[in-house]
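Report of the visiting student (M.T.), summer placement. My assignment was to run the structure pipeline on a short list of targets and document each run. The first record concerns Copper chaperone CopZ.
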Amino acid sequence: MTLTLHVQGMTCGHCKAAVTNTLQQLDGVRRVDVHLEQGTVDVEYDEAKVTVDQLKAAIEDQGYDVV
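After the run finished, the structure tokens were exported:
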């Protein structure tokens, strides 16, 4: 499944790397594409291994707001 999350607070390459790396550490995440200009994160993941709430929590743990 592919999901687009709207994330506030991402402004630079460090932000992009932080969100990408934290999501890629979750079991079941296949692909992460962060789009700073749009403030979105596209995540391709296996619904049987990871939930949307887990994806959101991982991003929020990095200090960003999922809206």
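The chain has two helices and four strands. The helical segments are 13-24, 52-61. I thank the supervising group for their guidance throughout the placement.
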